[in-house]
Amino acid sequence: MGARFIGVDRDQVFLMPPSVRDWVPEGHLVWTVLAAVEELDLSAFYAAYRDDGYGRPPYEPSMMVALVLYAYARGNRSARGIERACVEDVTYRVVTANLVPDHSTIADFSLSA
Questions:
Q1: Total domains, the chain
Q2: Residue 80 falls within a domain, yes or no?
Q3: Cβ atoms of 84 and 63 closer than 8 Å
Q4: 51: left (phi over 0), alpha (psi -120 to 50) or beta
Q5: N or C: which end of the chain has fewer CB within 10 A?
Q6: What pTM does this model have?
Q7: Domain containing residue 87
């Protein structure tokens, strides 16, 4: 009789709960950062964007602020590292709601902040 293994189905529809809020436990640093960003006055960030509808829509400034703050709090100061974490690290995916900003966008935003 051969060895028995737990099956691997990479085509499974849900590997994680469908709500990103279920991915990280209460009390985690990510929730603290997100709550802190909700309290900030980000009107200067919003004012810097065009109102005329031209160009590609930007990422939500509050998400970008939270992403940069969370990454810096975790010691991740590389735009490429932050981009990679948005793909590989579930807490970053919670911050970005499963979006993956390009490293150039992250770097530009970090410099403008």
A1: 1
A2: yes
A3: no
A4: alpha
A5: N
A6: 0.83
A7: 20-48+59-112
Question: Which tokens is 33 given?
Answer: 């950062």
Instruction: Give residue for tokens 């990103």.
Output: 20
Residue 10 belongs to some domain of the structure: no
What DSSP line would sit under 31-97, residue for residue? HHHHHHHHHS--HHHHHTS-SS--SSPPPPHHHHHHHHHHHHHTT---HHHHHHHHHH-HHHHHHHT
DSSP 7: -
The answer to whether residues 59 and 83 touch, using CB atoms and an 8 Å cutoff, is: no
Q: What is the pLDDT of residues 18-53, one digit of tens each?
A: 788 888 999 999 999 999 999 999 999 888 887 877
- CB within 8 Å of 101: residues ≥ 6 apart: 59, 64, 67, 83, 86, 109
